[in-house]
Amino acid sequence: MVATLTSTPPSFLPLWRRKLPTFNPTQCLGTGKEALEISSNGYIKTNTTGFPEKGISTRPGTSSTPRPPRPRRIIFVRHGESEGNVDETVYTRVPDPKIDLTEKGRAEAEECGWRIREMIENDGANDWKVYFYVSPYKRTLETLRHLGLAFERSRISGMREEPRIREQDFGNFQDREKMRLDKALRLRYGRFFYRFPNGESAADVYDRITGFRETLKADIDIGRFQPPGEQSPNVNLIIVSHGLALRVFLMRWYKWTVEQFEGLNNMGNGNLIVMQKGYGGRYSLSMHHNEEELREFGLTDEMLIDQEWQKTARIGELNYDCPMVNSFFAHFEDEGCIT
Q1: 153-168: per-residue pLDDT in tens?
Q2: Which of 102, 107, 109, 110 is CA-nearest to residue 85?
Q3: Catalytic residue among 167, 200, 289, 302
Q4: Radius of gyration of the chain, Cα coordinates, nearest whole angstrom
Q5: CA distance 72 to 235
Q6: N or C end: fewer C-beta atoms under 10 angstroms in the chain?
Q7: Residue 295 lies in a domain
Q8: Are residue 147 and residue 172 in the same domain, yes or no?
Q9: Is 128:235 a contact under the CB 8 Å cutoff?
């Protein structure tokens, strides 16, 4: 069966639809001249004239075209200093999503943008671009606006506001004294599992970050960050978010334990941490950061060993020498497995 998309809307469509006679939906999938052949099981039959380099015109897993290059880096940026960072009473009268940056925070964001640009330009490539994901909170949107001053339009391949990377919800307007008690209780209960009344736990954030991670991986696989026909390996993703959300993302990506997560330290305002593509194609923090920086962030010996493995491992490889196995099972000491 052949389903043909035409440029002239049927007469029974509403008037607002008939005002666009020059729009051809087929152009969103190819050259605008071919028809789409739909098989009986609902998949588009082999017709790779429409974005073949994206691998989206055939059933997943059956495309003969190679996947587009993975982005060179995934750069995580914590928002600049906000009004809530310097005056906690702001949370009692201003909704958390509407809290703005301070003047210092705006300067931090702009300086961060120039640091990122310098990092990218040090690669020596001329075809580099950036793509942004940003939390919908005012302080992250403002951070992106000032960070973006370092990039001309031709260097920005796109941006997307992503609610799943928003700040942990602490429960609407915050009572200062009650929040102090809640945070003390969180230390007793555990930073990962404690849920703030009417708000979220870090475990709740983990669940929505997991959904975002899957979207991000799919976007990487189809090459969403470049126009059709471009295959540059020099795209850099920049995720502008919040301290806890970024730590949870790294926990999810690298499969860190709850104990390892709770040992991490928050990033400073306007600071960044970089996952860079290693020699085998996987992302490693050790490609950009030195051991001192990663220990300051909270990585343990086991986590550092894994990051070194990530530097050289190929995509799809599993780390069968995972050091956490030896440290978790104490009885291995009797077998001489731990020196």
Answers
A1: 999 999 999 999 999 9
A2: 102
A3: 167
A4: 24
A5: 6
A6: C
A7: no
A8: yes
A9: yes
Distance CA 32, CA 28 (A): 8
pTM above 0.85, yes or no: no
Residue 227 is part of which domain span?
73-277
Residues 160, 39, single domain; the answer is no
**105 and 239 inside one domain:** yes
For Cα atoms 98, 113, 169, give the angle at the middle one, nearest 5 degrees. Answer: 30
Pairing of strands 36-37, 2-3: antiparallel
Kindly name the residue from 79, 146, 242, 289 that is annotated as catalytic. 79
From residue 128, how far is each of 14, 167, 245, 262, 283 by CA, in Å?
Answer: 44, 30, 27, 36, 18
Q: Looking at the structure, do residues 14 and 80 belong to the same domain, yes or no?
A: no
152 is known as an active-site residue: no
State yes or no: is 292 an active-site residue. Answer: no
Binding residues for substrate: 78-85, 139, 178
User: What's the number of domains the chain is made of?
Assistant: 2
Token pair for residue 30?
A: 């190819």
* Alpha-carbon gap, residue 213 to 202, rounded angstroms: 16
Beta carbons within 8 Å of 108's beta carbon, 6+ residues apart: 80, 81, 269, 270
- Residue 175, in any domain of the structure: yes
Per-residue pLDDT of the chain (339 residues; tens, 9 = 90+): 444 443 444 444 444 444 444 433 333 333 333 344 444 444 334 333 333 333 333 344 445 567 889 999 999 999 999 999 999 899 999 999 999 999 999 999 999 999 999 999 999 999 999 999 999 999 999 999 999 999 999 999 999 999 999 999 988 877 778 888 888 998 888 889 999 988 999 999 999 999 999 999 999 999 899 888 888 999 999 999 999 999 999 999 999 999 999 999 999 999 999 999 999 999 999 999 999 999 999 999 999 999 999 999 998 888 777 777 777 887 776 665 443
Other Cβ atoms less than 10 A from the Cβ of 272: the count is: 20
